[in-house]
Amino acid sequence: MAPHLSELSHRFPEISLEIVARRDVVNLAQRDADIALRTVRPTRGNYAIRRAGWWNLGLYAARSYARTHGLAPGLRDLSKVAIITWTRDSAHLRGGPWFAEHARGSAVAFMANSRRVHHAACKAGLGVAILPCLAADLEPDLVCLLPPSRVISVELWLVVHRDVARTARVRAVLDFLVEVGPKKGR
Q1: Tens of pLDDT along 134-147?
Q2: Segment 48-85, tens digit of pLDDT
Q3: Hey, what CATH topology would domain 2-54+153-180 get?
Q4: What are the C-alpha distances in Å from 155 to residues 113, 137, 150?
Q5: Assigned superfamily of 57-152
């Protein structure tokens, strides 16, 4: 959604955005934020909830790594690749469980607790990584070995406390984010 924020700013110049990215869940009841973007749909609370789109993650490698290891899109055997994954304390995050199931015999080339670091390590040719398609597909040095339909495609939810859901500025941002939100992966 970030590439569309300038469009939002042009369309609604009176709205000033502040984006705070963090792993923990903000408390909307205490007004820690007006809108939260979540990968898990809340099942309780006084919230208005809308689907914002999909967070698509595929398996990527640097073109040089893929060439050196004879890897091509549609890869079936991960036992001969080195993986870039989460540190032990973050192994439960997106991609960690997928690797645990599908890459049991693979060597771990690198571990980090940051998706951005995974991206940089993958681009540097350290191994294969599960990366968000929106960013990785823009990198000419990366090749998608497995699409989100074979890796992970997670629904994104916009969550708003009902007390602020009908305010004009919040409604405008919600509608815009739904409009530009990523579609389900290929």
Answers
A1: 899 999 999 999 99
A2: 999 998 999 999 999 999 999 999 999 988 988 999 99
A3: D-Maltodextrin-Binding Protein; domain 2 (3.40.190)
A4: 22, 19, 15
A5: Periplasmic binding protein-like II (3.40.190.10)
